[in-house]
Amino acid sequence: MSRRRYSYSYSPTPRREQKRRHSKALSGWLLLGLTGVVVVAAVALHQAFAGGGDGDSFAAESPCWKQVACSAERLEPGALSQRDDQLREEEDAGTGGEEQIVRREADPPGIVASSVAVIEEPCGALVHGFNEHERYSPASLTKIATALVAAERVDIRQTVRVTVDGGALSAENDATVMGLIPGQDLSMTDLLYGMLLPSGNDAAIQIAEKVAGGVDEFADLMNEYVAEAGLEDTQFKNPHGLDEPGHYASAYDIAMLGRQLLRNPTLAYIVSMRSYQPPWDAPPLHNLNLLLGQYPGALGVKTGYTDQAGQTLVAASERQGRRYVVAILGSQDIFVDATNLLDWAFQSAPSSCEPVGGSQVSAPR
Q1: Residue 349: pLDDT band by 50, 70, 90 thresholds?
Q2: What are the domain boundaries of the chain?
Q3: Which one is catalytic: 115, 199, 317, 331?
Q4: pTM for the structure as a whole
Q5: Residues 114, 115, 143, 272: which is the catalytic one?
């Protein structure tokens, strides 16, 4: 099939030239007539405005054809110069060596999660919430509370003789594991890395057995912890977060637990690491939190997933002296939701706290 070609040149024939001359003459008379109409209209308008006519009412009665050159905004004297000054200040703010955050008012972004909470540090103010006090399955966000209770109850530098079989546990319920083998000698710190980075359920169970003697006993300690913290919409039945009747948390409560974890320098350091090599011949452990190294100022904290809970996440970021903790429950894309919420928080959220003094984290010894 040949491609159609278009020509933009034109050479008139004699008959067409005659028609063109008649058309040109007619166009001249029409142009002269239109010029006269325009002059008359211009004079009339000048008289209307110069003679004290109601210009505002005229503008109100005039239709905005296709919304061209029409504006509903009226600027007071000096408003333009004020705007210019504001724009210059914003431009100057962006010339520094670090990224400058220009805060502008905006509504919170749309999300696909069932429940969210955005907490600002250091005062713990709730700056945005959606179903933030509703109770949902938190999945592995449970391990935030497990880490807090363990760090409060025992010396995390102590050595633990492993009794939990990670391979058998994974085969039994398809759980994520760090790969514990009975008979290994690992520190409690190694177990915390294995629980918080790859979300090892075997590590959570081993921690529970070491601290309290069993899973049920440790869950009691977890519930004591949240009760003392004044968190009323959370109840734990296990230390790992697998779905179980009566095991639930709210986005607000889990965000506050994430905030508390970041206040522990050792735990904050652990959740900020992208990988960790335990003292074994197996490969290193990798953090499932993809925001680390990708989102500006990301600090951690924990991801989670079960069929019932969907995707869950507690994420935190610190920039320009501001720190926000975001909890997301029942999402289909936690990292998109977290990115949108954190972007909004840094750019538009009303600030309720004094600026933080910088992250205080320290490597476990």
Answers
A1: confident
A2: 115-348
A3: 199
A4: 0.71
A5: 143
